[in-house]
Specification:
Order of helices and strands: H
Shape: rod-shaped
Radius of gyration: 22 Å
Helix content: over 70%
Number of strands: 0
Distance between the termini: 74 Å
Largest sheet: none
Strand content: under 5%
Length: 51
Protein backbone atom coordinates (compact mmCIF):
# COMPACT_ATOMS: atom_id res chain seq x y z
CA UNK A 1 0.00 0.00 0.00
CA UNK A 2 2.80 2.42 0.83
CA UNK A 3 4.50 1.71 -2.49
CA UNK A 4 1.38 2.71 -4.46
CA UNK A 5 1.00 5.84 -2.36
CA UNK A 6 4.59 6.87 -3.14
CA UNK A 7 4.01 6.29 -6.86
CA UNK A 8 0.86 8.44 -6.82
CA UNK A 9 2.56 11.15 -4.75
CA UNK A 10 5.48 11.20 -7.18
CA UNK A 11 3.12 11.43 -10.15
CA UNK A 12 1.18 14.31 -8.58
CA UNK A 13 4.44 16.10 -7.75
CA UNK A 14 5.68 15.62 -11.33
CA UNK A 15 2.41 17.02 -12.73
CA UNK A 16 2.60 20.09 -10.47
CA UNK A 17 6.24 20.74 -11.40
CA UNK A 18 5.37 20.30 -15.09
CA UNK A 19 2.55 22.88 -14.86
CA UNK A 20 4.82 25.38 -13.10
CA UNK A 21 7.57 24.97 -15.71
CA UNK A 22 5.13 25.21 -18.63
CA UNK A 23 3.52 28.33 -17.13
CA UNK A 24 6.88 30.08 -16.76
CA UNK A 25 8.10 29.07 -20.23
CA UNK A 26 4.81 29.97 -21.89
CA UNK A 27 4.65 33.39 -20.25
CA UNK A 28 8.23 34.09 -21.32
CA UNK A 29 7.46 32.86 -24.84
CA UNK A 30 4.34 35.03 -25.06
CA UNK A 31 6.30 38.10 -23.89
CA UNK A 32 8.97 37.40 -26.52
CA UNK A 33 6.40 37.04 -29.30
CA UNK A 34 4.60 40.24 -28.28
CA UNK A 35 7.91 42.11 -28.13
CA UNK A 36 8.88 40.90 -31.61
CA UNK A 37 5.48 41.93 -33.01
CA UNK A 38 5.78 45.40 -31.48
CA UNK A 39 9.31 45.80 -32.84
CA UNK A 40 8.12 44.71 -36.30
CA UNK A 41 5.29 47.27 -36.21
CA UNK A 42 7.68 50.04 -35.13
CA UNK A 43 10.14 49.08 -37.89
CA UNK A 44 7.33 49.05 -40.48
CA UNK A 45 6.08 52.47 -39.41
CA UNK A 46 9.62 53.87 -39.41
CA UNK A 47 10.53 52.57 -42.84
CA UNK A 48 7.14 53.44 -44.37
CA UNK A 49 6.57 56.96 -43.03
CA UNK A 50 9.93 58.30 -41.82
CA UNK A 51 12.05 57.70 -44.91
Amino acid sequence: MDENFMIYAGAILAIVICFVIIKKVASCLIRSIVSLVVLAIIAYVYFTYMR
